[in-house]
Amino acid sequence: MMKAYLILEDGSVFEGTSIGAVKEVVSEFVFNTSMTGYLEVLTDPSYAGQSVVMTYPLIGNYGVCLEDQESSKPHVEGFIVNELARLGSNFRKNIDLEEYLIQHDIPGIQGIDTRNLTKIIRNIGCMNGMITTTKYENLDEVMKRIHAFKVTGVVEQTTCKESYTIGTGDKRVALLDYGAKANIAKSLVKRGCQVTVYPASTPASVILKEKYDGIMLSNGPGDPEENVQIIEEIKLLASSQTPIFAICLGHQLMALAHGFKTEKMKYGHHGANHPVKDLETGRVYISTQNHNFVIKEDSIDSAVAKPWFINVNDKTIEGVTYLKENIKTVQFHPEACAGPLDTDALFEEFIKMMEGK
Fold first, then answer.
1. Active-site residues (predicted)?
2. Do 29 and 89 belong together in one domain?
3. E strand segments, the chain
């Protein structure tokens, strides 16, 4: 087996064995605490520009079931595991994880101490790094490349190229695709909605002239503040009084459209076990999350909006209710996939918003 190396911008070097494609890649590194759902992680567009460290020690044991993909292809830059299961065992399996990584040209490493790697990221924060099969004797040039990397332009990379419609329900919903997971549209369709998915750069005027019952803003990758023109279009959508429900990046973009501020977290939330508290009922739910940015609570204008959910662990904002418009947003993923279905009833909340209840 070929040796592979993970080099972090703090100078840490891990040696393991190569899995997946044999190539060199520089990216941002994050860790995911999910025990299952590695295919959904690989195909979540929100990971564009990032390599993912799986904290659970054995990954790949049920292979790859292609119908579980959250998009048509993986979006992670690299994949790091403690141990890769070479043979997946599941009656739904199409191929093994190793074969899937090779097919999609994704490099990875196994056999490193992922617990130690995760602790480094937790202590120092999200950082850039490199996956390579080359053993560099002098890291100076490598470090220049690592430090120079920046996750940018990823919404444009992951959005659909043209609009399309799925479902035949009574409620007509426009879904703005900023890097949407497939199960968002599926969750709406199974609740009786006809969903038209639009590219991220679609002008608000195109959406509003169709007089949809509701508008959905999807998840997506990268720094929300980078999407200057999209934010301007969201301002127009918000002022239309059309019911709007937003998830993850959409939640952040809606906040920016109202003049609130976002900031990058130390190491973000990535996993399927994050507790969130509904401030209206006091009930706590377990949620799936994948984000590096968060709304700054002290930037929320109390005359415009109020916090809806908070994270039980670190008290960061997980949801916002807007007081003057028919808009609700959440930072976590009610569509899950993979993860708990605790909060999928929020799609019913959106249906009620469209029905004026």
1. 248, 333, 335
2. yes
3. 3-8, 13-20, 25-32, 50-54, 58-59, 78-80, 83-84, 107-110, 127-132, 164-166, 171-177, 193-199, 214-217, 244-247, 262-278, 284-295, 305-311, 317-322, 327-330
